[in-house]
Amino acid sequence: MSHEQERLKERIAAELDIGRRHSNGLTLDVLDEEELLAQHSPLMSPLVWDLAHVGNYEEQWLLRVAGGRQALRPDIDGLYDAFENPRATRVSLPLLPPEEAREYNERVRREVLDALESVDLGVPGPRTASEDERFLLEAGLLYHLVIQHEHQHNETMLATHQLRRGEPVLLEETAGVATLNPPVRGEVLVPAGEFTMGTSEDPWAYDNEGPAHTVDLGPYWIDTAPVTNAAYQEFMDDGGYQDRRWWSPAGWEWKEGRGVLAPAFWTKEGDGWSRRRFGRREMVPADEPVQHVSFHEAQAYAAWAGKRLPSEPEWEKAARFDPRTGRSHRYPWGDTEPGPHHANLGRRRLGPAPAGSHPEGASPLGVQQMIGDVWEWTSTTFTGYPDFRAFPYRGYSEVFFDDGYKVLRGGSWATHPTAARSTFRNWDHPIRRQIFSGFRCARDVEPV
């Protein structure tokens, strides 16, 4: 085995371990059986479903496909099929109890690590239509798929924890309320021209991130930082939730039907606002990016501000294009993997960092916090890029195309670094607010 393969296998084993420790830390380590089996919101699965689902997904891809071994528990495949079982009905399934789920996950992991020792991971490289089977293992693509999948479910579990009622179980010193004024608002001009969008070579990329293709955009302005709580409160104080001018017909219908008057989890407190954050009640920090807002709320704020939401290509160009070299980087700051100085990722704190944080993570154009803190809504409906091919299965991306889902970009404070890159695409219904979503605005360049 080459040194390159040895290093890759060590990295895979380490990342698999990190993901499982996070999963257990959000379930078995902090909640009793009753809480794990409960459905804390019809929007979310019982936490014990997520726990066994990540193990079953790992068994199917890394044990059966990559490892070429026999199925351990084919009898539970149907229980943990996300397409067969909508979230609202999973609580009624005969799910594995917490301890049985732990034992199953541990058995799968032992077998996977044993099989990994003899798997040939090949050499990284771009794939072609005739090379899909080879590419499944080259650069560890299948392992990367499973690692990211578990981290994505960790973020989903965190959303469930936010919806859960009861005493706090996720340990953190409550952040003090910032007394500084919010950062000075600013915009960056993105010049007209072509850039490379998406990727065809990143061994961690999902199918919907490619293929790489050239996009030609006109000039536009984009906010330097995400919209803050303080800025969003100005919209609220100006009657933004009561003024139909700022809302799309679908947004107004949703807002009126739900009686929405503020971001999710906010409560009026005298002249200010408090928020519930993982069982804690605290005043809303002025300088943090606003989160738990829907696409409709983001769109209404942007209209009130005389702006709009960026399209997905506009967001990506601002995040990764370097006009000096003509290159599109993997991250705003370049091609090196994220460090604590670049972005707020991986649950280092249970919320966004103040706007203007992490200046070392700025893009070549000077746009900040494009990675981490909050997922950012774009105006684009989720669909495939030109010449898209589903890989390694249709169910990850293609079944969601052109069905009204809006694209979110950039990751949040809860996103693990392995799933945070400038090409990563998230998507959700425009009414969703339990996710860690925020936004920044863009606007057209006015003709001279």
Structural class: alpha+beta
CATH architecture of the largest domain: Alpha-Beta Complex
CATH class category label of the largest domain: Alpha Beta
Tell how many strands the DSSP assignment holds. 14
Q: Ranges with pLDDT <50 over ≥5 residues?
A: 123-130, 174-182
Counting H and I runs of at least 4 residues, what is the number of helices? 10
Share of residues in strands: 5-15%
What does this protein look like?
This protein is of the alpha+beta class. It has two domains: 3-163, Up-down Bundle (Four Helix Bundle (Hemerythrin (Met), subunit A)); 180-448, paralog of FGE (formylglycine-generating enzyme) (Alpha-Beta Complex), CATH 3.90.1580.10. Helices cover 29% and strands 12% of the residues. It contains ten helices and 14 strands. It has helices spanning 3-25, 33-37, 47-66, 98-116, 132-135, 141-163, 229-237, 249-258, 295-304, 312-320; strands spanning 187-190, 193-197, 213-217, 220-223, 266-269, 272-277, 280-283, 321-322, 327-328, 375-381, 406-409, 425-428, 437-438, 442-444. The strands form five sheets. The protein has a four-stranded mixed β-sheet with strand order 12-11-10-13. Strands 1-4-14 form a three-stranded antiparallel β-sheet, with helices on one face. Strands 5-6-7 form a three-stranded antiparallel β-sheet, with no helix packed on it. Strand 8 (321-322) and strand 9 (327-328) form a beta hairpin. The longest helix is centred in the N-terminal third of the chain and has 23 residues, at 3-25. It is globular.
